[in-house]
Amino acid sequence: MSGETRKWLREALETLPTEERVALQLFVIEGLSAADVARLVGWDSAKTVYNHVYRSLSAVRRFLLDRGIGPSDLA
Amino acid sequence: MELLNEHPKGEPLPSHHPDETERLLWVFGELSAADQTRVEVHVETCASCAADVAGLRRSISNLETHGHTADPVQAGCLDEAQIAALVDGLLEPDDKTGVLSHLAVCHRCCQATASLVRALQSEPIAAALSGPEHVARRRATDKRIKRRWMGAAGALAAAAGVAGLLMVWPSEPAVTPAPVQREPSVGVAAAAVLQEPIGESAAPEEFRWSPVSGADRYRVTVFDNQANVVWETETQETRAATPASVGFRPGVQYLWKVAARVAWDRWVDSELVRFSIAEP
User: Fold this and answer.
1) Residues on chain B touching A26 (C-beta within 8 angstroms)
2) How many angstroms away from the CA of B114 is the closest CA of chain A?
3) Using CB atoms within 10 A of its CB, is residue B8 exposed (0-12), middle (13-18) or buried (19+)?
4) CA–CA separation, B266 and B60 (whole Å)
5) Of A66, B105, B142, B260, whose CB has the highest number of CB atoms within 10 Å?
6) Least confident segment among A30-34, A52-56, B45-49
7) Which of A28, A52, A67, A72 should we substitute to test contact with B (largest number of B Cβ atoms within 10 Å)?
8) Nearest to B261 by CA among B198, B197, B222, B218
9) Which DSSP string corresponds to B32-62?
10) Spatial distance between the Cα atoms of B167 and A22, rounded to a whole number of angstroms
11) Chain A closest CA to B21's CA: distance in Å?
12) HEC profile for B180-248?
């Protein structure tokens, strides 16, 4: 992953609301369960975590595609 | 779940599209066995769902690769008491907002939080904390000092000793995977550097990578260009022989990575590297 792409990925994450970014970190990167993430962030259920994580991942993908960073540019 | 448009009469009805949650859970492998199979079969035959799943996998892979970037200790980093209070649900709303704001930008503190959550769920510690003396202590603590955040930190220290507490919160700098392009920082565990196969080559008989300081185990994962796992294995060596059952196809681009286990339940991912098999 190039430095430029890594920078865009970091910026993509920065566009996310705080709680969604924390949920993304804890669920996707740290691998905590959705139930644990919901409790930590203050959401009412695991289902809420799934919804937010899905939307966040889609938002990150859209942000990068809008900047011309396509699938071939990312690992 | 969504229903497809009406299908021509006489033809078999198509399967229902999995909804967003199902697709996400499928990617993480968290559906029931029957649902995993159902969604897998649907994704194999539905271009739009396959594209969405591939996009999810790419985003997840990018985050997993990027998300292990080492964050140095900052002035605003959380201490053990704050993390324990968050995990215990003892923070006042204003304090919680500040803690979450920091977690959003600090992978080091996210790691520490996750470590504590996992530690509290581990069998011996969970058993120790459910003892009557700890239950009574926590009740008294909750009533007396919401803002002093004893909770899990105090109970955990009592149950596991100071050494156990140190195990939970990393006192070492956060682990970062070293990208192929630069040298790893001093004192920070590097990721494996993938050596073979890279680029176009003959069908690999084995996969090789550099050793990672402190790693006792490696997990090799090979993906096809649809982000499907083609092969995965674990080994204590820095090479893995390709089993005969894995049939790499010429002209198809594959990706692979190696995760190095550098501590209990702590894996450092390498960069994803592409390779393809030369046409005969």
Assistant:
1) 103, 110, 113-114
2) 6
3) exposed
4) 17
5) B260
6) B45-49
7) A28
8) B218
9) -HHHHHHHHHHHHH-HHHHHHHHHHHHHHHH
10) 23
11) 6
12) CCCCCCCCCCCCCCEEECCEEECCCCEEEECCCCCCCEEEEEEECCCCCEEEEEEECCCEEECCCCCCC
Amino acid in position B176:
T
What is the structure's pLDDT at B28? 84
The CA distance from A33 to B125, in Å, is 18
Give pLDDT tens digits for A44-74: 999 999 999 999 998 988 888 888 776 555 4
Instruction: Look at strands B239-241 and B229-235 and give their pairing.
Output: unpaired
CA separation for the pair A24, A30 (Å, rounded): 9
- CB under 8 Å to A1, separation ≥6 — which residues? A9, A74, A75, B62, B65, B66, B179, B271
Please count the CA atoms within 13 angstroms of the CA of B160 that sit on its side-chain side. 24
Q: Which secondary-structure segment (H or E) carries A20?
A: helix A18-24
CB distance B126 to B94 below 8 Å? no
B24-36 per-residue burial string, b: 16 or more CB within 10 A, e: under 16: bbbbeeebeeeee
Interatomic CA distance for residues B165 and B154, integer angstroms: 9
- Residue pair B277/B249 in contact by the 8 Å Cβ criterion: yes
- B23 contacts in chain A (CB < 8 Å): 54
Q: Which tokens is B273 given? A: 């590297």
The alpha carbon of residue B6 is apart from the nearest alpha carbon of chain A, in Å, by 28
Q: What residues does B267 pair with on adjacent strands?
A: B261
Structure tokens at A57: 């991942």
Count of positions (residues) in chain A: 75
Query: Token digits for B181?
Result: 């392009």
Q: Contacts of residue A59 in chain B, CB cutoff 8 Å?
A: none
Q: How large is the ipTM?
A: 0.88
